[in-house]
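Hey,
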Amino acid sequence: MLPRIKNGAIELPSTFIIPCPLFNIQGGAVAQSVEQRTENPCVGGSIPPHTTKKAWRNAGLFMFYVYILQSLSNGSYYKGCTDNLERRFREHNAGKEFSTKKYLPWKLVWYTTKSTLSEARLLENKLKNITSRARIQSFIEKYTGGGPDEA
């Protein structure tokens, strides 16, 4: 089950499980490396120190989010992508992002997931090319709910 948007905040399910296909990869270098150094790399929810983020991305264990925020102060939109939606949402609302700190607070109005960073950046760039507020609102209404294959 994916995170949901409720009242402009991200709501995570009580058990947020990401499948661990490392042991299903036949002869994969990542699987062999992980099997040699630890019993189960998927326990504990963190990346083992001997594997890199890139290896986990290539194994399909990483998810990228493309999202749209709306300012509660002036109604403007911000579009971005990240590998950690909850952390990034907190950063925007804490004023840590130069381009969004002037228009605090923000609410998350739309997101979707992509399996690769290149797919996420491609969609982010397409969204950033939509400059009309009416077209952005239309896009959000059409694809509300998020999910892996919605956009």
